[in-house]
Amino acid sequence: MSLRTLNKLMATASLAVFAAQGAAAQDMDALIEGARAEGMLTTIALPHSWCGYGDVIAGFKEKYPFLTINELNPDAGSADELEAVRANKDNKGPQAPDVLDIGLSFGPAAQAEGLLQPYKVATWDTIPDEAKEADGHWYGDYYGVMSFLVNTDIVDNVPTSFEDLLKPEYAGMVALAGDPRTSNQAILAVMAAGMARGAEPGTASAEAGLQFFKELNEAGNFVPVTARAGTLAQGTTPIVIAWDYNALSWRDGFEGNPAAEVTVPSDAVLAGVYVQAISAYAPQPNAAKLWMEYLYSDEGQLGWLAGYCHPIRFNDLVANDKVPQDLLDALPPAEAYEAAVFPSIEQVNANSAAVTSGWDAVVGANVVE
To answer: Is this structure's pTM higher than 0.85?
Structure first.
C-alpha cells in the first residue's frame, strides 16, 4: 500500500487524533495559516532512501501543497546538521534549516547549547517518556538495528557476525555508511562492534569497537569510503554496515541487480533511536511545527514504517489496529529483534565522545565521501 493511499484513508482519522490529544481545530488552522504565510520548509540530511523519507516528503507536499520543501545536503551527518544551525543563527535565508533529524546523543547536546526550541505535537502522550525530553526540545522518531548489507554477486559467503568480517576472504570489502567522526550511524556501528566483543555500551564499547576497526583496517578488509547504495552496487564496498532500514531500502532499490542480502549480526543486535527537533533559529517556525505534526500523526508514522523503520509510536499504532497487515508482513522476522539492546542516552553519549575523539589515533583510517 502506498503512502498516498494511506494518506487518503487516514485523513479523517488524523483530525480525530488531533482533537483527542487536545490540539483544537482552530490551533491547527492557525498553524496551517502561519505556515502558508511562510511558504517554505527547510530540511537537512534527509536522503529519500532513508526510512522512506522520499514518500514521507511526498505525502507532506500532497497534504500541504502551498509549502515548498527546500532540502539541504541530504547526505549530511548529525554533527553537520548542528553545524548548519550554528552557522546560520543570524541567517533567515534558505541555508538555515528549520528542522533536524539527529542521533539520540546529539539531542541533549544541541539542547544544552541552545540550538533547539521546544514543541509538543498533538500525539505527544503516545510517545514513550524515555524517548523524549520532558519540555519538547527533542523527541524520538524511529529506530532500527545495525545490520550488514551484502552484494551477493561478489560475496560468496554472507558474514553473519562482526567477527566474520575479519576473515581474509573479505579483504577490501567492508565499509561504514558514514564517517565515524561525524555520522551517528557510523558511530553506533563502532558501538555494535564493541558489544560483539562483550563490551558494555558506553566507553567500553567504544574502546573495544575502535580496536575491532583497527584490526579490520590492518587486515586490509576495511574500505575507508562512506558507503552508499551506489558504492555497494558498483562493488567498491560489497559489504556495508548500516541501519536495517537503510539496508533493506537499498536492497529493494536494486531490484535484483545486484543480488543483495541483509542480515542482522548474531553477536550484537544494537538498536538505535533517532530524534526530531526544531531549530531555535528556524526561519519558518510554523512550517516546522506543521512538519512535526505530520511526522507524528498516524499517517506520518506509517510512512516511516513503510520505509522499514520502526516508528516511535509503533506500539500505540499496533495496539489500536492502525498498522496495515501488508506493512507488518514486509518487516524482517520479529525474532531478529528479540535480542535488541537499547542503550541509554548516557551510554550513547559516552560511546560517541570516545569514538569521535579516538578514531584517528586508534584506527587511523580517513573515511572519505
So the answer is: no
